[in-house]
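Researcher: Here's the sequence for the chain we discussed earlier.
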Amino acid sequence: MRVIAGKFRSRQLGALRGLDIRPTSDRLRETLFNVLTAGNPDALAGSVWLDLFAGTGAVGIEALSRGAEKVYFVETSRRAVELIKRNLQSMGINNGFEILHEEVLHEIPKLERQRVKPNFIFLDPPYSSQNLYREALEQLANSVLSEHALVIVEHDKKFDPGAVFSAGALRRVRKLEQGDAGLSFYRCER
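Model: Thanks. This is the structure I predict for it:
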C-alpha cells in the first residue's frame, strides 16, 4: 500500500494483519482521487476531510498529500489508531490532523457541536456491517456536517447502501464500481 500522488507520492503505508481492517486499495484510491480532482491537481487544496472508519488512514493521508488542510481520522480500534499514528509519523506529518479514537456514530454529533465543516466525508465501515452504512448515512443526512460536503462511501459492489436518506436530504449523485468494490457519492439537498 502506498500514497498515490502529491507531496508523499510513492511512500509506503503500513497495514495490520489479522484484523477486520480492509484498506482501500491503491487502485480504488487512485480512482477516487482522480474523480475528485478531475484534471485539477489543486482541487483539494485547503479542504477539510472526515475519514470515518479510518482503518490505516490511507484515504486521509492521501488527502493530506494532495493539499488538504485538515483531516479528522475517526477509528474505534486501538491497534488501527496506533497504525494511523505510525503512518503519519513515517510521512513526517506533524499537523493538519486529529485522530479521534471513538465510535463513528458517537463522534458525528460531537464534530457537529464543534462546528466542523468538512468538504469531504469518506465513510468506509466494515463490509459485513451493513447496518452501519445506513445508520451513519442517516445521521449525516440529519447533520450540518454534510450540508456542503461530498459524502463518499466505499462498499462491496454487491451491496447498495441506499440512494436517498432522510426523505431526500442526502442523495446519491454518482456510483462507480471497480473490482469487488463500489464508491457511492452523495450530496445534501436541503
